[in-house]
């Protein structure tokens, strides 16, 4: 992996966590594909996760205890691994959300400062 | 990386909570779901999987990325390398043996050289203010570095020089030590020393006393012995009643008058001397009867050491010694014609 790619992945990493946690809060327990599809849909195709980004990200969240993964069966009777947000994940999301909103509001007032 | 994540990954390195197969299954399903969607959008069946793969990435790369996240990659790699290395080594035992031996010898030699250098260069003598101690003597041609002197030269240098706070002389002596009648004598190495040896070096016996100056005056008259702390412990069970005891050294009866302090083993780093007796006893311990070490100026077997007087530099001491050497060369042409005297620090 080149440094540039790593840099890009790192920027994504911070936002990926909050996006995944929010998606799980909205949808309840879902499998990875549903998460990716939902993000693509919500962003009108701007966010496109490939598996190499999504699954290591999910695994990292799982290792940090923010989500829990379990094998289950889809409505089409397919075996899939379902991810659910944990209590710790909910707390993490709340704090990250607050941080984002603060940042956004600062940026907003900065950029809309009267000339 | 949070601590919790790190612990998880450390654990994941050793105990797989999810196998490679498990990871791959999940990715495979993702790919299938993507292909389903392609089909729903009207992509023909044979192109659907390819299109899906283009959209979500390849399983192999993603598995690799997950493995990196699962454990600590460097630790996994290290363990894999170690396993591989040990397999390869087990496969060619001769090569392994040769390598291990080469390394062992190399490391051992290195250690030996270092301990040599450590003792020789880095560790001070076991006496107070070791930095003051200098060595005086003549270098014999075959032994350039070593400075030696005869007993008669020593006496002349000691009595004439003003540059030193005392000069001591000593020489090594091996003797058979008999502790009590009927027991087998043991070969033992000690030092024959000038009477001022302990006082000039500033070493106080742990028990008993050091030599009196008169005990080094008359050849063979005073068979007194100071033994090392080690010998006292080993041979006499650290018996405090050791003082006044008789021991035999090469057939001569000696009286133990003192025990050297623990840790003092003479002035040589490589030999731990076990006893000290006055140089006056030299003739009685000398195996070669034709040698008269206390009289012959060409029996140069003494090492002379001393402390520089406080207001004297090494150069001043050297100047004085050169004058003494010149006088001796004039007075004793047969033995001292070409003999220079040198002083140097340890």
Question: How would you describe this structure in keywords?
Answer:
heterodimer; A: alpha+beta; B: 346 residues; alpha+beta; 6-stranded mixed beta barrel; 12 helices; 11 strands; 18% strand
Task: Give the CA-CA distance, first to last residue of chain B.
Answer: 57 Å
Number of domains of chain A: 1
> Largest sheet of chain A, if any?
3 strands, antiparallel
Number of helices of chain A: 4
Uncertain segments of chain A: 1-11
Give an overview in words.
The complex is a heterodimer of chains A (115) and B (346). Chain A is of the alpha+beta class and 115 residues long. Chain A has a single domain, classed as Winged helix-like DNA-binding domain superfamily/Winged helix DNA-binding domain (Arc Repressor Mutant, subunit A). In chain A, strands 1-3-2 form a 3-stranded antiparallel β-sheet. In chain A, α1 crosses α3. With 346 residues, chain B is of the alpha+beta class. Chain B folds into 3 domains: 89 residues, no CATH class; 31 residues; 216 residues, no CATH class. Chain B contains 12 helices and 11 strands. A 6-stranded mixed barrel of chain B has the order 3-4-9-6-8-7. The model of chain B has no long low-confidence stretch (mean pLDDT 88). At the A-B interface, α2, α3 and β3 of A face α1, α2 and α4 of B.
Concise account of the structure shown:
Chain A has 115 residues and is an alpha+beta fold. Helix content of chain A is 64%, strand content 14%.
Question: What is the secondary structure topology, with strand pairs?
Answer:
The complex is a heterodimer of chains A (115) and B (346).
Chain A: H1 3-27, E1 30-31, H2 32-42, H3 51-63, E2 67-73, E3 79-85, H4 87-111
Antiparallel strand pairs in A: 1-3, 2-3
Helix pairs in contact in A: 1-3, 1-4
Chain B: H1 3-14, H2 20-40, H3 45-56, H4 59-70, H5 73-91, H6 93-122, E1 133-139, E2 147-148, H7 151-160, E3 164-178, E4 186-193, H8 197-201, E5 207-208, E6 224-227, H9 229-236, E7 246-249, E8 252-259, E9 275-278, H10 282-285, E10 303-308, H11 314-331, H12 333-336, E11 342-345
Parallel strand pairs in B: 4-9, 6-8
Antiparallel strand pairs in B: 1-2, 1-10, 1-11, 3-4, 3-7, 3-10, 5-8, 6-9, 7-8
Helix pairs in contact in B: 2-3, 2-4
